[in-house]
């Protein structure tokens, strides 16, 4: 029934690329079992005949070669036959192209008179000028336009003083005229300097009716919170003049005391107790300069902080700076610090000031050259290096390692621009090769204060800081010295300090959080006035 054809050496098919369907069919016929039912054998035979016809048709179509590669044999009969096939298929495709006419997505909406009237009532025009359809509609021809639109009798607005702005410019932008502006500025300056009004202050302004078209509106009333304890109001009287009214606000200055267990995280415990974030940062900074926060504070210790606090009778509250820092252990004070003096330093209960151990690094950077003998990079011979060199970028700030006084600030030979400081105990430090100095001779500086900026002046191969230290006029290795700075109170100052500390510790924890009880005058003012009281007051005036 089947005749074998040539196959490739691999046995996968003929050498001309035609699939080896005959070999596959022969194999299938050989493995067919004779024991299958007659119906299945007939169905299988029909399927084999269909496959044979389909494969035979594929062989013939493959021999026709209707679509040859147009990149090969250009100009030959085979190439023109392929070109004809391409043009025929392209023509067939274009014949069934839907066209370039626009398609209508949906039929147009039928608009009758009712729908048209509804559209007219929604036009972007004045809606209360005409009613030929029974709806609020746009104006018709019967409407006569007004010569001038009436203005509102008064305008109420709120102006906010922005940072860097002035009180007068803010009022001018709000629409207050020149005469009223000058009068308001004069009245307010009598109660509080204008430059002391805090940015963010909101001013309630009421402008009256214009006296004539084009003229600025007159100021009828103005009111704002000038300070935490003072509100100011300006109103126009019956005589047409502006008058200032001061409204003092009762303020309670009881400090706010917050106590609680330190726990595993002192910061989180204090924040959970309701302490403001800024006060917590001040507390940790002051405490960290006295004790080691990792080892000096136990989870069972009690933190104690007191900060300045203000409560206004109107309900506003304002937290101030930290006043007291304390740690209690076993019910007894372990660490007590209180802010004292014009500089705002913290002092211990004994009168000893804040203790700061060790030197600050004068600049952020690694040490590139230490103290001792070395070969000079510019002069080329070996000599003693009388300080330490820190690697730093140009313009990086340089700080004082501890408190001191500026002995000199200027040009110093090979040291370039240099600043020399004198400290307690006969210690002096010098900072060389600066690009710019930020202090002058005779000036007092504090630990961590910027005194200049890194440069490369003098005998220098690049931007860095050369830092020197002297004791009794003799250069010493800066890495071998550690400073301890303490301020001590004595005499009357110490007595007053202890009195204030004892009084401050009598404040109860959380007492300042209670609402401020109204005074008798405030309670009377809040009560509604009876009609009989109004009549009696009117009779008294008459």
Automatic annotation (TrEMBL):
It comes from the Bacteria. The keyword Zinc applies. Residues 257-364 form the Csd3-like second N-terminal domain. It is found in: Cell envelope. One of its GO terms (biological process) is proteolysis. InterPro entries: Cell_wall_metabolism_enzyme (IPR050570), Csd3_N2 (IPR045834), Dup_hybrid_motif (IPR011055), M23ase_b-sheet_dom (IPR016047). One of its GO terms (molecular function) is metalloendopeptidase activity. CDD domains: M23_peptidase (cd12797). Its main location: other. GO terms for cellular component: cell envelope. Keywords: Hydrolase, Membrane, Metal-binding, Metalloprotease, Protease, Signal, Transmembrane, Transmembrane helix, Zinc. Signal peptide: none annotated. Its cofactor is Zn(2+). Residues 384-478 form the M23ase beta-sheet core domain. The keyword Transferase does not apply. The chain crosses the membrane at residues 79-100. This is M23 family metallopeptidase. It comes from Tsuneonella litorea.
């Amino acid at each position: 029934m089947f005749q074998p054809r040539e196959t490739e050496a691999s046995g996968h098919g003929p050498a001309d690329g035609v699939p080896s369907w005959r070999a596959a069919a022969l194999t299938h016929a050989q493995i067919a079992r004779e024991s299958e039912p007659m119906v299945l054998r007939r169905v299988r035979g029909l399927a084999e005949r269909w496959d044979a016809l389909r494969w035979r048709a594929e062989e013939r179509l493959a021999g026709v070669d209707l679509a040859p590669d147009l990149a090969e044999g250009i100009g030959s009969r085979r190439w023109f036959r392929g070109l004809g096939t391409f043009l025929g298929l392209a023509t067939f495709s274009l014949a069934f192209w839907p066209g370039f006419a626009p398609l209508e997505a949906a039929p147009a909406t039928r608009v009758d008179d009712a729908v048209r009237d509804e559209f007219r009532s929604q036009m972007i025009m004045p809606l209360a000028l005409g009613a030929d359809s029974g709806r609020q509609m746009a104006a018709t021809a019967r409407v006569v336009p007004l010569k001038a639109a009436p203005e509102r009798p008064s305008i109420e607005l709120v102006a906010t003083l922005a940072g860097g702005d002035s009180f007068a410019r803010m009022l001018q932008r709000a629409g207050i005229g020149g005469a009223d502006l000058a009068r308001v500025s004069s009245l307010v300056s009598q109660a509080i300097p204008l430059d002391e009004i805090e940015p963010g202050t909101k001013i309630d302004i009421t402008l009256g009716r214009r006296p004539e078209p084009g003229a600025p509106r007159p100021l009828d009333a103005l009111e704002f919170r000038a300070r935490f304890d003072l509100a100011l109001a300006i109103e126009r009287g019956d005589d047409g003049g502006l008058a200032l009214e001061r409204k003092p606000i009762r303020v309670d200055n009881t400090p706010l005391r917050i106590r609680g267990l330190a726990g595993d995280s002192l910061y989180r415990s204090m924040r959970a107790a309701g302490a403001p974030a800024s006060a917590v940062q001040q507390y940790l900074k002051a405490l960290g300069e006295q004790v080691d926060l990792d080892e000096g504070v136990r989870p069972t210790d009690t933190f104690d902080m007191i900060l300045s606090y203000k409560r206004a009778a109107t309900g506003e509250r304002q937290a101030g700076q930290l006043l007291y820092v304390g740690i209690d252990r076993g019910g007894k004070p372990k660490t007590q610090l209180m802010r004292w003096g014009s500089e705002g330093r913290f002092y211990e209960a004994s009168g000893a000031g804040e203790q700061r151990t060790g030197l600050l690094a004068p600049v952020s950077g690694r040490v590139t050259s230490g103290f001792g003998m070395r070969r000079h990079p510019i002069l080329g011979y070996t000599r003693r290096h009388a300080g330490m060199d820190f690697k730093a970028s140009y313009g990086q700030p340089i700080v004082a390692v501890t408190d001191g006084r500026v002995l000199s600030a200027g040009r110093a030979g090979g040291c370039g621009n240099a600043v020399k400081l004198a400290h307690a105990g006969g210690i002096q430090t010098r900072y060389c090769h600066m690009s710019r100095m930020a202090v002058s001779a005779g000036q007092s500086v504090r630990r961590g204060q910027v005194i200049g900026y890194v440069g490369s002046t003098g005998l220098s191969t690049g931007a860095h800081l050369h830092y020197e230290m002297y004791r009794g006029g003799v250069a010493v290795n800066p890495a071998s010295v550690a400073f301890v700075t303490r301020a001590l109170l004595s005499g009357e100052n110490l007595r007053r300090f202890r009195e204030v500390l004892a009084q401050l510790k009598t404040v109860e924890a959380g007492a300042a959080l209670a609402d401020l009880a109204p005074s008798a005058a405030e309670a009377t003012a809040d009560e509604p006035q009876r009609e009989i009281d109004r009549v009696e007051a009117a009779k008294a005036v008459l």
